[in-house]
Amino acid sequence: MSSTDEELINRLQTHLSTIRKAAGWSGERLANELGITKQTVSSLETGKTQMTKMHYLAIRAVFNNEIAVSGNEDLAKIIQLFVDQPMAPELEKLQKDLEKEKEEAEKAKREVVVKQSAIVGATALTAALVPASSALIPALNSLAYQLTMSIKK
Predict the structure, then answer these.
(1) At what angle do helices 3-22 and 53-70 cross, to 10 degrees?
(2) Which of its termini does the chain have fewer beta carbons within 10 Å around, N or C?
(3) 3-class DSSP state for residue 22?
């Protein structure tokens, strides 16, 4: 089986429930159309049972027949969108890329906020120390003078 066949089978299995509902069918009706049990349909839809190429061909045949008989063009478009020419993987990739970019931008923003906070904190500390140092310098000069005088005696 080619990788293209496997991709089609996987996409049909992934979207089987959506496609069945778009056809307006219950799981029981799909099972009856395919000649399988309702449990098998459920297992295919949930991924408990791996869809085979025979399942794929039978399901496509009954849905193609439904489209031909009922003229359900919406069903045809849904099958084309999800199985034949899927855009979902490309859209999912774009969405993941956007989410990653958003996370990186938020991280960079947090880093900028932390740096700004550090700068503001350092500025506030410096501003608080300048008046204290202005008062401390004369006191230290006085202390140094007194110490020098006591050593000279």
Answers:
(1) 40
(2) C
(3) helix
Give this prediction's pTM: 0.57
- Within 10 angstroms of residue 62's Cβ, the number of other Cβ atoms is 17
Q: Which of 115, 119, 1 is nearest to 52 (CA)?
A: 1
Q: What number of CA atoms fall less than 13 Å from residue 16's CA on the CB side?
A: 28
Task: pLDDT tens for the chain, 153 residues: list them.
Answer: 777 899 999 999 999 999 999 999 999 999 999 999 999 999 999 999 999 999 999 999 999 999 999 999 999 999 998 998 876 666 667 777 888 888 998 998 888 888 888 787 778 777 777 776 677 777 778 877 787 888 876
Count CB atoms within 10 A of the CB of residue 14: 17
DSSP state of 52: P
Structure tokens of 26? 């219950």
